[in-house]
Amino acid sequence: MHFCKNNIVLRLCGIEPVQFVVRVLFLMLLLATSTSTVTSPARANAGIAKAPAPSWVTDLDIPEPLPERIDQVINGAYYLLLSRQIRFQNQQRTAYRRIAVKVTNREGLEEAGHISIEFRPERDNITIHGIRIYRDGGVTDILDDTDFHTFRREKDLDSGILDGNWTAFANLYSVRIGDIVEYSYSRTFQTILMQDEFFGRFPTNFGSPVGVLETRIMVPKNMELAIRQPENPVQIITKDLPGERIYSWVQTDPEPIRYEDHVPSWHDPQDVVGVSSVQNWSAVAADSLDHYTPVQTLPRAFREKLDQIGNSTSGSRYRISKVLSLVQNEIRYVGIEIDRGAFIPRPPDVVLKQGFGDCKDKSYLMVEALRHLGIKAVPALAHLSRGQTLADILPSPYVFNHVIVKAQADGQTFWLDPTRTQQYSPDPVNSQADYGYVLPISKDTTELERIVPVFPDTPNTIVEESITINSEEGQPLVKLKVKSLYKGSDADEFRVKLAGKGSRYYADVYKKYYAGLYEQIAPAADIEISDDIENNILQVLEQYEVPGTADYKVLLEKFYLQADTVRSILTKPDNEERQRPFVLPFPIHRQHRVSVENLSGTYKPLDPIDIETSYLNFALRSSFEKKKLIVGWTLKTKQEAVSASDYKNYGEVYDSLISETSWWFDLTQEVEGEQ
Fold first, then answer.
1. Which domains does the chain have, with CATH numbers?
2. Which candidate, 224, 218, 371, 367, places its Cα nearest to that of 283?
3. CB burial class (10 A; 0-12, 13-18, 19+) of residue 54?
4. pTM assigned to the model
5. DSSP code string of 550-587
6. What is the model's pLDDT at position 5?
7. What is the separation of C-alpha 346 from the centre of its chain, rounded to a whole number of angstroms?
8. pLDDT for residue 43
């Protein structure tokens, strides 16, 4: 497990979801990753041994492919046999893998024509046991003729993460369409955390057909294993041997996963068997606590900065926000996740000296900074995307991939992420991170703790469009002024976007948007951006004009308005049927108001719209007085996803919003206009 910004990939091995990735399954895409960076020259067979399989390994026959599954095969590789067998003895894990894959088309040659294994040479031992090709009723052993090349490749370098992983890679000669490629290997290693415990998560289905999926776990007989079955359980068989107990299950032709788009990140489509010898979450917290020992003192220069914050009379909440901003913006994010560095934080003085750190480094530093100011704070283990479902997972230190800070002041708890940037709210309640369930690293921790989300009571984004119509000769036909106000988390988010792409980029985006609505419209002034850091309010001002030379009737006879907030935020459903939740942007609370001034006719206000569901609210109001037509609407999402059972209703709501939130007005009329 890397404690870093990027999500960790659930590994096929199901034991330590970090260092061991095999590309052979359809979802393993290591060699296809365009951002991978080779940082060392390849070495032939370096660190890769060849030897027979361990004596405790069992061998199943390779099944025949099922004709009815052929059209469900992904990338032309039909996995006939996937065997994963793990033996745990004396803190050492040996993970054995045997894979047999049939090449069904040309794409399958790319999938099955090579072997790729990711490992860490400082503590992993890789042994290749066999490589065979089955063709026309015969079998060819190519183990001795296959050379493995090892090289270091930093696939997350662009994200500021160095993991020190190496790849063992071998091209297989003479693989043809119709062949069955079979190979087996094992990896022997120790975990960094909780070396005396065993834990794992084992998927029981995949997106592509699998003929036979075998799982065997061998642990000391005196080790108590908790097992958590998925919704579709498997039949687990236990067998006792001298000093050992074996847990095993075999699945024949498990039903492939039906994947759907727009699924929330916390929803795992795979069924998973969870296994753990860890008795409770307090044991995980206690083990982690040893790595976050309170420091005696912080470097002098840093203490002086903290004391300046502490001398403020604005209170503890303000001090928390200032410390958060200090750590976020003065310590850049770099994750050196090599060996123990993937799990053990660096001391605060080291982080301050080097000026960078990863999530655990920055959180450790922030905790100590808050403690220096007399504010209670502890680190907390989190998961960037799967935190909503951690309560359904057995205890293990490897189900987390992130560290944040739990701070307490004025009887309130704040959950803060020092790896974020551009958060300047004077109240930490506006900077909270919602990662679902987290595990505070404290001697008092007994269970996971659910972060209670904080939602804005008032809109965080307010857009006002002022349109002035002027038919006088020599004057612009239309003047448009757009004022966008971003507050709280929306200000943080937009500030990050501006820092990344610059104001010119967004000026061009906005110009293109309005050019698509009104012919001949062009900027009348440069975009203006003002940022009130202390109050965390960011304002964007745009000005546009349609020249007086534009065609009066073409533009004003069918003048278009739309509730763009709806179209730009909500996603159109693909169909009426769905098995999985449908993600919503969340939390969203936006207000949009359009005024059209200097009208010559009389206009009837639009009918009000009020839509309230369990997942969103939408309201629209309009008015007409003193030659001014005003249309305003608000949109608020109330949860992260629409359930599969509500999906049909969401589709109806979406269609209704789209059909009822765009309007054509005849602005040339001297009497009541058409809408």
1. 30-277 (2.60.40.3140), 286-450 (3.10.620.30), 461-665 (2.60.120.1130)
2. 224
3. middle
4. 0.86
5. S-HHHHHTTEEEE-HHHHHHSPPPS-S--SS-EE---S
6. 36
7. 25
8. 54
